[in-house]
Fold each of these.
Amino acid sequence: MNEREELPAIDELRTLLGGRLTTSLPIREAHGRDESWHPVAPPDAVAFATSTKEVSEIVRICAQHRFPVIAFGTGTSLEGHISAPHGGLSLDLSRMNRILEVNAADLDVHLEAGVTRKALNAWLRDMGLFFPIDPGADASLGGMAATRASGTNAVRYGTMRENVLNLTAVMADGSIVHTAHRARKSAAGYDLTRLLVGSEGTLGIITELTLKLYGIPEAIASGVVSFPNFEGAIDAVIETIQTGLPVARIEFLDEVQVEACNRYSKLSLPVAPLLLVEFHGSEASVAEQAERFGFIAGEHGGGAFEWAVKAEERTKLWEARHNSLYAALALQPGKKGLISDVCVPISRLAEAISGTKEDLKSSPLVAPIVGHVGDGNFHLIMLVDPENAAEVAEAQRIHDRMVMRALSLDGTCTGEHGIGEGKRKFLAAEHGEGVAVMHTIKQALDPLNILNPGKMLPA
Amino acid sequence: MNEREELPAIDELRTLLGGRLTTSLPIREAHGRDESWHPVAPPDAVAFATSTKEVSEIVRICAQHRFPVIAFGTGTSLEGHISAPHGGLSLDLSRMNRILEVNAADLDVHLEAGVTRKALNAWLRDMGLFFPIDPGADASLGGMAATRASGTNAVRYGTMRENVLNLTAVMADGSIVHTAHRARKSAAGYDLTRLLVGSEGTLGIITELTLKLYGIPEAIASGVVSFPNFEGAIDAVIETIQTGLPVARIEFLDEVQVEACNRYSKLSLPVAPLLLVEFHGSEASVAEQAERFGFIAGEHGGGAFEWAVKAEERTKLWEARHNSLYAALALQPGKKGLISDVCVPISRLAEAISGTKEDLKSSPLVAPIVGHVGDGNFHLIMLVDPENAAEVAEAQRIHDRMVMRALSLDGTCTGEHGIGEGKRKFLAAEHGEGVAVMHTIKQALDPLNILNPGKMLPA
Ligand SMILES: Cc1cc2nc3c(=O)[nH]c(=O)nc-3n(C[C@H](O)[C@H](O)[C@H](O)COP(=O)(O)OP(=O)(O)OC[C@H]3O[C@@H](n4cnc5c(N)ncnc54)[C@H](O)[C@@H]3O)c2cc1C
Ligand SMILES: Cc1cc2nc3c(=O)[nH]c(=O)nc-3n(C[C@H](O)[C@H](O)[C@H](O)COP(=O)(O)OP(=O)(O)OC[C@H]3O[C@@H](n4cnc5c(N)ncnc54)[C@H](O)[C@@H]3O)c2cc1C
């Protein structure tokens, strides 16, 4: 898209938005930067929207001028999602950050897409409610829906797929759609909610969401247990899930990651593969679950099972977990993290991880493994210098092998980070003929290809 | 579609299928009959498919001849779903009834679409596993996915929306799509699984499914409690859900339905509004849940809380619940049941039910109410003589008011039975602009409109 074609769109947008439309280089660059290792192209302009109606007007103008629109939440995605390879507008929703209505009686909340998960939970705390989905970053709820995000609690509470009741979305023609009402279930029509969840800004701009909430559990207990080898840890996870123990969180950190966390978060965990678990329930049921888990861990070589039921210690451990990416990056300052996120059926988890461990043995890369293993989901963080072609190539080799191995184990190329630009090539390997169906849907709902073009679907 | 145009399609199908293609009147009529009060048009022919590949060939032939294809599971749907208003082929999947693979370790099963829920659970029982979704009828898993079915366990285990991992589907052009792999979660591409779940045979023919399974709980406890009025029963439900008690089933029967069940299933329940509940968990947790529920019920005027933990008694009670439609029909032999199914946010449930109770007070109709009330979902069964125009009109008046009331309470026009022919007029009232998006999707994926034409989407 050359300069001459862009200008009228920007002019018209400026008339609509005034100072909330900017072409300032630093702001464009800030919207052309994400948390990934991918080189990201900045947009031509950035708009800060304040209402659904305004988003609709913005999209109409962009459609008229065939000007790409890239929704922007907080820019914490990891696969080059927010890049503007074809130029266009970064549509920043962070100022749409109002919590519109909490229905405590129905355990739901209606809010604008720019509200972040931490802001939401801070707001809810006094009501005894919480929203469980917690990607490591303080992402926007709109961005989380758009990427079908999950996090540490997904094993118990599900992902964004299960926790969105209704979306308000602006479609590519500017029309405003409400995907559902507030009922917990419905058999009325195509599931537009789930079609938009995970569509990465390519089918519509999410402006408002109604989300499920949960009562803060009466009792919460967290614990850590170390294992002599990763196989023991993973076998303990598998048995925990198979026996239906309703664990709320069960996270794996390999010894490389544990050491990184010790340094970064000033902990003194034994440097060995580790599981960090949490149970939610009544006092009695939490105690029962903990006892059962302790037994399972012990059977698989787990060491002393340390409980940290005090809120303070619990918070410290989970903060360290959420900062694990930054802890990993701090191992080799200056490098970027090439992150691979895959998910496999739980029975194949040990195989998936050991394949990658095997690959790493003969590699010079430093690469911790962490995972929401209760879902069969884990991440590899390979530290690379983006300027060092050999290093990048080696990381990509290991990455590709990890993804293809996950697919061969009946898993997915991404459990939660999404496709963006980085994983487009794997979509066909995973979905085969399904990709044609996805193309047909995209073509039908966004015939001008203005919504986040160049993302998700292979060219 | 006139006879001359149909013949070549039928000829070609016969060449492909031999004796598994029939135009016999009794068989066509059996496939033009469902469990609803709707007059249903029989198809021109019935095919019994035996493999995904064959379904693909059938659909290709039908596409070539613009011959409608109506998938048929067990024909237990309630909104005229399987009717053939434009003629065409009833594609019966009941012979695709193989259970292909149980992955006990991953708690999933891969099977053909014609397997029924009872056949599946009979197969699983010895493995200590079960599949929880249980519409009253012994429906096919393909039909259940296609209608986004739920049932008594949905409050704890979710609906078909949450319990399908992967579908194999034949699209309108005959292409075969696998919507996902076996991983528990994925952020890879559009959610084709959820797009097909609930699409009522209008976007693709489901030939195989991978479903989530659950371990049969260590302990199960069922109980019944009667209330002096329905308000008390509903308030007890609301408090149970709001306090996060993980009830597995919580069913409401009003006094009219209780009396019907007493007669039909030879029970001697007090003729008063009643809740039938079930808890799943460990021995200790089930006891704890039961105690808490007993307390809540008591607070809302509930009578003595009778526990029937013995498997035999439990089965008897739940069979009576599953037979409630037939029990209702037996109240006035010869009449049909006009069933209205709505779902509202739980806080609006009492309002939704009392509005209908109010309407019924001044009506001559006999009409029991039953409901999966833990989800805010309930059904009204109005007994009508389809030949009696005044009676049908009165039933439709009450039905329309019940649906529009549910919508005004932020609910849905159908919690689980779906749209079919019967509820098309409500889809626009519920979804507004969303219906245009649904039309666009239908048009893109089935441009010849051969898959179950005349259903779900308003004309
Ligand atoms: C340290 C760290 C840890 C992480 N841990 C996890 C984790 O555990 N689990 C996990 O799932 N992810 C994780 N992530 C990834 C990231 O946080 C998630 O992908 C998150 O959902 C992105 O939200 P965002 O608001 O930052 O979206 P952005 O990065 O701004 O956008 C992401 C994509 O969604 C689109 N989008 C954004 N907002 C909207 C909208 N309103 N409407 C339509 N499209 C929109 C964008 O166009 C883009 O394609 C982590 C990231 C970091 C940096
Ligand atoms: C007594 C009774 C109680 C009931 N209770 C409940 C309940 O509690 N909860 C509930 O949800 N429903 C309930 N129902 C309704 C019914 O059982 C469900 O809708 C069920 O899911 C229908 O399954 P089926 O196999 O009979 O589908 P069918 O009636 O054969 O078909 C239903 C629809 O799905 C389509 N379809 C069928 N198979 C496929 C396939 N393989 N691929 C694509 N499309 C397909 C058909 O074209 C049709 O549009 C009840 C019905 C009765 C008679």
Note: Residues B 34-35, 70-78, 81-82, 93, 113, 135-137, 139-140, 142-144, 146-147, 149-151, 200-201, 205-206, 325, 416-417, 452, 455 surround flavin-adenine dinucleotide (ligand 2) (CB under 6 Å).
Amino acid sequence: MKLSMVADHARWPKENDMIFNLSERAQAAEKAIGKENVINATIGALMDDEGKLITMDSVYSQLKSLPNNQISAYASIAGQDDYKEAVKKVCFQGNDPDGYTRVVASPGGSGAIKLAMWNYTNPGDVILTSDWYWSPYGIIGEEAGRSVANYKLFNKDGNFNTESFKDKFAEIVDKQGNIFTIINSPGHNPTGYSVSDEEWDEILDFAKEVAKDESKKIVFFIDVAYIDFVKDDLESRKFFRKFGDLPENILTIVGFSMSKGFTAYGMRMGAAIGISSNEDIAEEFYYSAMHSCRANWSNCNRGAMSVLSTLVADQAKFAQYEEEKKSYKDMLVRRAESFVEAAKGVDLEILPYRDGFFVSLPCDNPREICEELTKENLYLVPLKMGLRFAVCAVSEEKCRKAPKVIKEAIKKIKSVEGSLG
Amino acid sequence: MKLSMVADHARWPKENDMIFNLSERAQAAEKAIGKENVINATIGALMDDEGKLITMDSVYSQLKSLPNNQISAYASIAGQDDYKEAVKKVCFQGNDPDGYTRVVASPGGSGAIKLAMWNYTNPGDVILTSDWYWSPYGIIGEEAGRSVANYKLFNKDGNFNTESFKDKFAEIVDKQGNIFTIINSPGHNPTGYSVSDEEWDEILDFAKEVAKDESKKIVFFIDVAYIDFVKDDLESRKFFRKFGDLPENILTIVGFSMSKGFTAYGMRMGAAIGISSNEDIAEEFYYSAMHSCRANWSNCNRGAMSVLSTLVADQAKFAQYEEEKKSYKDMLVRRAESFVEAAKGVDLEILPYRDGFFVSLPCDNPREICEELTKENLYLVPLKMGLRFAVCAVSEEKCRKAPKVIKEAIKKIKSVEGSLG
């Protein structure tokens, strides 16, 4: 055996990040033939029509006007108190669920997932999420010996597949006694799906049924990373109320992130929000998560916390932020609608898009198709079951063009596969 | 049993941070009776003589002049390339050890410890550090089922206790087959001790002897969080060269932090630097640590990285930073010398101080003494085996006054204990 110093559990294949790699190739192409001739749909961040990262003035002027010591000082381990309050305010916007809520700061949404998964699952546990899912859920899990099981996200009508969800949920909770399930909504990455209020009711009614067996422990992790890029800010937050007054053996943890909603990706600022009808359970969440903070990253970006709390504390500034965000959201909606329409026009199958940064397309041989598309100077991300197109990063004009190009690449690969088969 | 939702491994006592609590009480006292009448030696950050946090202009003007997108964009998982190069430059300052070096960005020095400990120890392992040690080493360990064993830091002459180190090291490596040992030098927290070059030679000669058994795996984690606040920047970096050309089964990981050296505590920016004479081992370090990044916090503070790499790239700016840092370092040295001198004057026993932010005093009943001292409006931090006085946070004048006050409190508690005993 080759010499190795690392512990057995820490040995991973030397994989390069596929997304990163394609994104680099796209950038190289842009340099070589000009940005106007490349469609780079790999990037999970809001870009302007010229392919430049959008940074909100209201956010960055606030950051740069902070006194130095509000950036320099250590933050409290679980986050500054005013930040914790600000998180609840911007996340729930008045739709706070009834019950006991505790907020623990985290480095981005990823950190919140880590806090929740580490503390509420055991080594060897299976975590439930949909078959279309953001791959870091799996990476966060595998790092600590947890694995991921999937239900089918969509039924044949293109709605949330409640049956598949219930089946898998029941199977896991029967076997493990506990279940940790991640639902990324609204604006699911990678499909853009948003669970409807009626679908949430079905999900929660079922969970409540299971929870009647008091030995079962149920944790919902609701990843709302894209909640600020939905068509209706308020409507899409009403579902939070449904997590009030649940049985004591259902704990909800909301994963909040400043990355998208405040164009603050690089600042690494988020939070895990624990919600329980039992105060002891909420407190337990707080202290367990705080221990993990101390044991992983100690505390979080103080300046980023100050940006959020000072913005929220100042009505005029917050209104300016909201206006700015709205203009970008409107831009995003136009892009997504253009893509969806154009896909329909060329009969390109896409998954039901509702909100958020991405549209996905189901297909066979996604890697081959991605490679084929690079020849047309169109770059997107291959997933296990299809392709992810980042409408957040591509101009409306290019969003309108892309479906036809993709359709043809799929046809081409299909015919090659056919002739080989 | 009380209802609980959290996993068994994630249940911790609801402890409040003792340091934080005393620090809050000190601040309350400052408000009540005026800063000039309180000695607050609890804070592990550089404060000016008026008790205000010091923030270096050269660092913060750089941060605030960055283009927004250099703060906003996601960083690479393992850190931006120019940041990684800048880390090596400011950390080693030309004393790069021979061999293969890989840098992985982390949220502060804490994140670097996490990366190293997680990947190079197994659940149930014992980690070796000195009996005086920064308590988060234990917290980072216990979170993942590792525990801490100690050697005596000092021999009777007040030097590094090589005998005790060797005994414990041998005991653990015999039993476990592998050993992970943390040495925090120069400017050890909490004692201010710095391992001398001769002591490093003894330590490494012994490790090389153990490493002759090729089945043994030895990891040194060198925590250099305080390296920028030592009397001689260059002299105190020469020891890095000793980690070149070590046997392949000795891996060195240096824990770098921007917190102290750049007054950037709240930015959460550091790095783990892996050093090996074998390129595969260095690569293995890189990929394991990168997996942990993705699985814990995804990526780090992009703006903080840009601050370091732009400062390092600009000679004039870097010279300005060094000058500014020097002025604060000189201030720190004066404070520490005043404290040490005054302690000698009143015959107060302190541990051998060399560099860094803290001086420690060995004593019995540290909590009682701390409590007693609050009556004199002097606040410091109780440790298991004594008291920690933060010279970094207290004016020279107060550093000169404090030893007498502490001496009297110790006497008083001793006499109470005596009369009870």
Note: Residues 315-345 of chain B form the longest helix (31 residues).
